[in-house]
Design goal:
Length: about 425
């Protein structure tokens, strides 16, 4: 379970590993090291091989590899940018961050650019005379290995291009990101702390905790905050969760048994940025899917089929969340209090946009009612009640938007009652 608890350092490393330039840099460094290894291992090469494989046999291959990989790298980057823009255009701009973390694209592009750097560095070393006489043998061995890697990367790239930027692949990427966030939330409902509710009683003397910056709360470093709680009487009560928009100086919680400096130190362990992220924000993936459905229902696109497909994915995500095993009752951070994810907020972010934008299309409105009816039978009572309330809300939208009385009658028959 502790693997789900992210720290600020772990989050930074995780995001660094998703950067495109990191793998490209590593492959390029390996290419330069391979070229340099040919100089260091020259004494290990038999004279017979040195006489057979001369620089004249290797240089044409390196030249072709360098020129070819430069063209392929440029073309592949252009394809990636075009596909990402197309995906963002037909779904939502928030999907761009998910697509940029595609490891297959990173590895393929890193292989192409690494092969180019290897070939170019080898050519430079040959032309400037840095390579010893027998280095061409090892350079040829490394070149054959690089060519094999390039061929494998090309095959992966061709397969990956078949659905890169497509609606189905983009929806699948959003769904996977949303699922990971929801499962983490289910395993640690209050991020490992005690559950903060309306019945939680605060001590008589508490110190106010305020937001250190303006932006979206992306991460609460639970480990770092817990380590700053000195005595057993120290308590921290946070009223916000990742995904909340904070304003500098806003009250975000209270703490007891801490000095003013210690209170500020706790607030510095909150990661606040200009955008929301998926790591601890359980509802964000549902919102991104909802935005995709709303885009599909816009008059310019008019694609109710995609909106219905999104509803099915959201239903599966929420049902999987309700049936996933919850974390241990014993909190990992017993002196911290954090609220659980609001079930009403989850339902609202998932379905409010479709309820509004699909109200005038009976097939969308009916499918939404069917999804909400199944969610109303979920084992989580709060989620079920939120689904019932959303059913009423969606019905009000549809009553105002549908033109035919027959459609309204069909819809009314599917609407859930406010309470079971």
């Amino acid at each position: 379970m502790k693997t789900h608890i992210l720290s600020t350092t772990a989050l930074s490393l995780l995001r660094l590993s998703r950067k495109l330039w990191l793998r490209v840099t590593l492959f390029a460094l390996l290419a330069v090291l391979a070229s340099a290894a040919a100089i260091l291992l020259d004494d290990q090469i038999p004279d017979s091989l040195k006489a057979r494989f001369t620089p004249d046999a290797v240089m044409p291959i390196l030249t072709i590899l360098a020129s070819g990989m430069l063209a392929v790298s440029t073309f592949s980057l252009n394809v990636m940018v075009t596909a990402h823009n197309a995906a963002a255009g037909q779904t939502t701009p928030r999907v761009h961050a998910i697509l940029l973390a595609d490891t297959t694209t990173h590895t393929v592009l890193a292989t192409f650019i690494g092969a180019f750097v290897y070939a170019l560095s080898a050519i430079i070393l040959f032309q400037t005379g840095f390579y010893p006489e027998g280095a061409s043998v090892l350079v040829l061995v490394f070149t054959v290995a690089v060519v094999v890697l390039v061929v494998v990367a090309l095959l992966r790239w061709i397969h990956h291009l078949s659905d890169l930027g497509s609606m189905d692949a983009t929806l699948l990427a959003i769904e996977e990101a949303a699922r990971n966030s929801l499962i983490r939330d289910r395993s640690l409902p209050s991020l490992g702390a005690r559950r903060l509710t309306e019945d939680t009683v605060l001590p008589m003397e508490v110190r106010t905790l305020t937001a250190p910056a303006t932006g979206y709360l992306q991460l609460i470093d639970m480990h770092a905050i817990s380590e700053k709680l000195g005595t057993d009487q120290t308590r921290v009560y946070l009223y916000v969760r990742p995904g909340a928009y904070l304003v500098r100086g806003q009250t975000i919680g209270h703490a007891s048994g801490l000095s003013e400096d210690e209170g500020r130190a706790i607030c510095r362990n909150l990661t606040i940025a200009a955008t929301r992220s998926f790591e601890q924000d359980a509802s964000y993936g549902l919102l991104v899917l909802s935005e995709t459905a709303s885009r599909a229902l816009s008059p310019g696109i008019n694609d109710p089929g995609t909106a219905i497909a999104v509803l099915c994915r959201q239903e599966k995500l929420l049902l999987d969340w309700t049936h996933a095993s919850k974390g241990e009752e014993r909190p990992l951070f017993p002196r911290m209090f954090v609220p659980e994810t609001s079930r009403a907020a989850m339902i609202y972010m998932a379905f409010a946009g479709v309820a509004r934008d699909g109200a005038g299309q009976i097939e969308v409105a009916l499918r939404l009612q069917q999804v909400l009816a199944r969610l109303a039978k979920a084992p989580d009572a709060d989620l079920a009640q939120a689904a019932r309330e959303m059913s009423q809300h969606a019905c009000e939208y549809a009553e105002a938007a549908l033109a035919l009385e027959r459609d309204k009658t069909r819809l009314r028959a599917a609407v859930l009652s406010p309470s079971p």
